[in-house]
Write a structure and sequence with these properties.
Mean pLDDT: 91
Helix content: over 70%
Order of helices and strands: HHHHHH
Largest sheet: none
Radius of gyration: 16 Å
Number of strands: 0
Oligomer: single chain
Low-confidence stretches: none
Shape: elongated
Length: about 110
């Protein structure tokens, strides 16, 4: 879930990964989790945060010629973004702790 607000604030998955990548790696090692899984989770959560990035909202309003309605667009997509980020978080939880899914992760 850290990638989600990171991208919403920075506007870029790459920037969010640079900001929080080492934090994810260190935390994963301390918890005994796969650093690759945590890095992937950070990026996947970041993609969900791209929906609520200010630049993406402005591009959407301009592309649809719905000028001045950026707040309405943000209010609409915010909950979708949060729900999808939560689903990504659930999938990462399953891959980190639940047996059949754990086998999918490279350690």
């Amino acid at each position: 879930m850290l990638g989600w607000p990171g991208v919403a604030l920075t506007g870029s998955v790459t920037s969010s990964s640079v900001l929080f990548g080492s934090l994810q790696k260190i935390t994963a090692r301390q918890l005994g989790l796969s650093p690759a899984l945590m890095a992937a989770a950070n990026s996947a959560g970041g993609v969900m945060g791209k929906m609520i990035d200010a630049r993406s909202i402005v591009v959407a309003s301009t592309a649809t010629r719905w000028y001045g309605h950026e707040g309405k667009i943000l209010r609409y997509v915010f909950w979708h973004s949060l729900a999808l980020a939560s689903l990504v978080g659930l999938l990462v939880f399953l891959q980190a702790y639940v047996y059949p899914f754990v086998r999918l992760v490279i350690h």
